[in-house]
Amino acid sequence: MNKKRVAFLYIFFDFFAAVFTWAIFFIYRKYNVDAELFSQHFSMSILDDAKFYIGLLAYPLYWLLLHTFTGYYKRVNGKSRLKELEITFSITLIGVLVFFFAFILDDIVNNYFDYIQYFLLLFSVQFVLTYFPRLVITTQRNRKIHKGKLGVNTLIIGSDTIALNTYKSVIRDRVHTGSFILGYVIVDSEDEDALSTELPCLGKMENLLDIVREHDVEELIIAVHNGKRKYIETIITMIRDIHDRNIDLKLIPQSQDFLVGLVKTSSVLAEPLISISPNYMPDWQKYTKRFFDIFLSILAIIVLIPAYIFLAIGVKRSSPGPILYSQERIGYRGKPFKIFKFRSMYLDAEQGGPQLSSKQDDRITPFGRFMRKSRLDETPQFFNVLIGDMSLVGPRPERQYYIDQIVKHAPYYKLLLSIKPGITSWGQVKFGYAENVEEMIQRLKWDLLYLENMSLQMDIKILIYTMLIVLERKGK
Fold it and tell me: Are the C-beta atoms of 143 and 30 separated by less than 8 Å?
């Protein structure tokens, strides 16, 4: 059973769970208000009520949107029944609370105790009808995993005795994990090849991306000893270059990893591994972040209309040339896009090729220096955010020319391409504009730190500090 079909089954049963919940809840409310009238005129009470039919469509769509918003349908493999119980209970409780306070509190009731009855009925029916089909689907999939009929294509990175012991542990626990070990990849040609008697060697690490695509690999287990952990950074960077699939990265823990609490596991019987998640934010936070990107950008554009007029006049009077300046930058998943700015330099400032600006750059106009100090030249990028090329908060996008130079010294820069670039970033707040490649690499640590700590709370903090920089004109 493929992932799309399983996701469809979850959506299908969730939809009809909501349909039946609405019908039961609507009928109970009508009966509770006037049982005698309901018994005598059932058709008039239910079938002739337009709200009943509106609810049959709107109520299920509300729940499908809510479950999509929380990312439930995104990953259908490896679901734990206990975890699914927790998630279904939590989302149902939140969803019912929101719906109840939005639409039911002004309902006609005999007494206030009816509200408690309504809430308990709505929650109970919605939860039971939603969770039971999910439990059946998940149980069936888990049984197929236990029988070895279902699993994910897995690749072991490493070939020495640690990799061999890891393979034996995974094989022993395959009944619980569903990992189909296809083979292994040699990290270093000088490594001991202890796995050759158990698994086929699929190649070397420099061919990792081709191997993953060729064999449709969904899971990588990095099994290397401490001396080879320097390769982990390279492996993670390479895998993040594969934008067309989600790959689970798992790392064999060392003793210190247990001590500092890095080792997490969702299965009691499976081998404990460090999971390196490609999802930096929960799905609901991603959708919320995008909503605020759009809302705040529209608000900013409206508020900044007088400032846009002032800046446009200032740019036009400062020097000949266009008011706006566009430049190709590299964005999400390596896709090029045009970034917009108010022009702060004289025309043809880069005739000799790409150049970064500096504090005493004579290519910058006097008015451009004022704009850069308060970062007003960046404000047209709110339109980039609306288009979807950028976010309010994210690593600053760079030109391909400079990215090529950065990755020679810091290949992990490519990790930043796994999220949308931003108008402002932690690197901008802490470091400011970079005047050369070396400073770009220094600023990179702050952007990587943001990457690993992405949250709505972090975005809010960065936006507040950015506003302070703009108001105090501390930009550089």
Answer: no
Q: What are phi and psi of 393, to 5 degrees?
A: -120, 130
**CB burial of residue 408 (10 Å; 0-12, 13-18, 19+):** exposed
Nearest to 163 by CA among 222, 218, 236: 222
The domain made up of 152-276 is a member of CATH 3.40.50.720: yes
Query: Which tokens hold the place of 384?
Result: 């980039």
For the cut 70, the answer to whether the pLDDT of residue 110 exceeds it is: no
Side-chain half-sphere exposure of 51, counting CA atoms within 13 A: 12
Identify the band that residue 124 occupies on the pLDDT scale cut at 50, 70 and 90: very high
Count of alpha carbons within 13 angstroms of residue 353, beta-carbon side: 3
CA 126 – CA 91 distance, rounded (Å):
11
DSSP 353: S
- The one-character DSSP state at 271 is P
> 95 and 18 in contact (C-beta within 8 Å)?
no
User: Percentage of residues in the chain with pLDDT exceeding 90?
Assistant: 28
Break the chain into its structural domains and give their ranges.
3-146, 152-276, 283-472
C-alpha R_g of the chain: 28
Which pLDDT belongs to residue 258? 44
| Phi-psi category of residue 333: left, alpha or beta, with phi > 0 → left and psi -120 to 50 → alpha | left
The span from the CA of 155 to the CA of 134, in Å, is 30
Tell me, rounded to whole angstroms, the distance of Cα 202 from its chain centroid: 31
HEC string of 53-86 equals HHHHHHHHHHHHHHHHHCCCCCCCCCCCHHHHHH
More confident residue, 160 or 96: 96
3-state secondary structure of 277: coil
Nearest-angstrom CA–CA distance, 176 and 172: 9
CA 190, distance to chain mean position in Å, is 38
Q: How far apart are CA 122 and CA 99, in angstroms?
A: 10
361-385 residue pLDDT tens: 778 888 888 888 878 888 999 999 9
Do 57 and 81 touch, CB atoms closer than 8 A?
Answer: no
- Asked if 273 and 263 count as a contact pair (C-beta separation under 8 A), the reply is yes
Tokens of 17: 């769970």
Q: Return the DSSP state at 232.
A: H
Separation CA 323–CA 370 (nearest Å): 15
Total-model pTM: 0.71
